[in-house]
Specification:
This protein has helices spanning 2-13, 18-38, 43-79, 99-111, 132-135, 142-156, and strands at residues 88-93, 115-121, 124-129. The chain is of the alpha+beta class. The chain has two domains: 2-38, no CATH class; 43-156, Alpha-Beta Plaits, CATH 3.30.70. α1 packs antiparallel against α2, α3 (43-79) packs antiparallel against α6 and α4 (99-111) runs antiparallel to α6 (142-156). The protein starts with a helix and ends with a helix.
Length: 158
């Protein structure tokens, strides 16, 4: 977070001089101290974020791949007159524990064309799918596996 504060400081100043850098370090350190003191932030969380960056990058690329794949499926349904979509509501449960992981899963499902997360109650998800084919294997999807891996990594750091 300190590096993020300092980077934003430099970007907003538009130039790099010795006094701007010194002042930026002081302000960034003060903001970081404030976060640690009053917002329950810590260096452990900072290091955890760096540890999770490769998983977030992998998750992003899997999301892009799934969006492209779902776009192709929806395009086939739209352009093929003999294919009739079978809309369906799919209910499934996950073992995800954190609210952030559940929100990321729900948003990832909604971002993929042809599917919309209707509700999340506890560990139970309700998803509307344009076609039953788009709903196959949703509870064991790559998204769930990556999010469980992120949660396991976070657990190791506690």
């Amino acid at each position: 977070m300190f590096l993020l504060f300092f980077s934003v400081w430099l970007i907003l100043n538009g130039k790099v001089t010795a006094e701007i850098c010194v002042f930026g370090v002081v302000i960034s350190a003060a903001l970081f101290y404030f976060m640690c003191r009053f917002m329950e932030y810590s260096m452990r969380k900072e290091l955890l974020l760096f540890k999770l960056i490769p998983l977030f990058v992998r998750y992003f690329w899997v999301l892009v791949k799934e969006i492209v794949r779902a776009n192709v499926c929806v395009l086939k349904i739209i352009l093929s007159p003999e294919l009739q979509p079978e809309p369906a509501f799919v209910y499934f449960e996950t073992a995800l524990r954190t609210g952030l992981a559940k929100v990321m899963l729900a948003n990832s499902i909604t971002l993929t064309p042809g599917t919309i997360t209707v509700s999340v109650e506890g560990n139970r998800f309700c998803v509307h799918c344009l076609d039953r084919e788009l709903a196959e294997g949703m509870e064991e999807s790559v998204f769930v596996e990556l999010l469980e891996e992120m949660e396991a990594e976070e657990e190791r750091w506690r």
